[in-house]
Amino acid sequence: MKGYGMIRVGQPGWLEHEKPTAGPMDAILRPVMLAPCSSDTHMMHGGSGPVEDRILGHEAVGEVVEVGSLVTKFKKGDIVVVPCTTPNWEELGVQRKGGNNAHDCTTASSFKFLTVKDGVFAEYFSVNNADANLVLLPEDVSMEDALMTTDMMSTGMYGAEMANIQLGDTVVVFGIGPVGLMAVAGAALLGAGRIIAIGTRPNCVKFAREYGATDIVSYKDGNVVDQILAIAGGQVDSAIIAGGNSATMNQALSVVRANGTVSNVNFLDATDAYNVPTPLVFMGMGDVTIRGGFCPGGAVRIQKLLNLIRAGRVHPGKMLNYKYEGFDKIPEAFDVMDKKPSDLIKPVVKINW
Fold it and tell me: What is the pTM of this model?
């Protein structure tokens, strides 16, 4: 089969691989809509090490073409939403973690696409534990909205969930790309009274306000920390890091009050390091909670996010502002995700087989 990915670090291109086969609990799908992600381009540039000959992609709505002998909930022809993290639910490590399944606690991460097997930029791809990981696309949810639940919505809202937001709290969101925008939406849904979003791109600022941001801070207008403290009238209850770099942690610690929370869903390189001056955390005893977590997956998680969409509480599909049609357009969409033109929020590829 044909797929698009990394021939080697720094060299994307088309690859020819064997079509995957279905184990008893697996499903084989072909993508009908997919979205390149910055994680894909990050990996292509070597952010995850010297990977070679790997088909990329981890955000997809797909059509079932084959199911394993033990799969009972899906059949050939079903259109399904595919979470980017697909745990092995029988693993004790996942069960101990209560469904927040960044890792299986084995040798393989629940983020299997890209890391331990080919991704979704392919004519066919496999999903393990299909009954526990896939969700039928509801008739009253657009494919675009559903596609955004697989990673952007799940990741961003997890940032808000980890932030321990209480009714009326003041929350800062660092970065308003698609993940940060969904963190804004999540903070609003959880009851934040004031949401200060950090970003500069006009279309992202527009959506941030639409999703619930009450204030916008731009680094172009001066020191970000000073601006936040001035707007909030002091320190805030929670900060969500959805963009920036390792230094953003210190900005977050500078604005969060004692007994507040810093929540991080921003992916950093293995070569990055946090360097936190101890006065930022009251000589190590600042009573600030720092949490970091990876995108939750599985069918229950995706179904809950789809419920929010069906209720009209959020529509993430509107972030898809670069649109392509056809399997052969994957390289073009990938390239625009890599180069990030100033008006880009998120590219999407629709595929009609």
Answer: 0.94
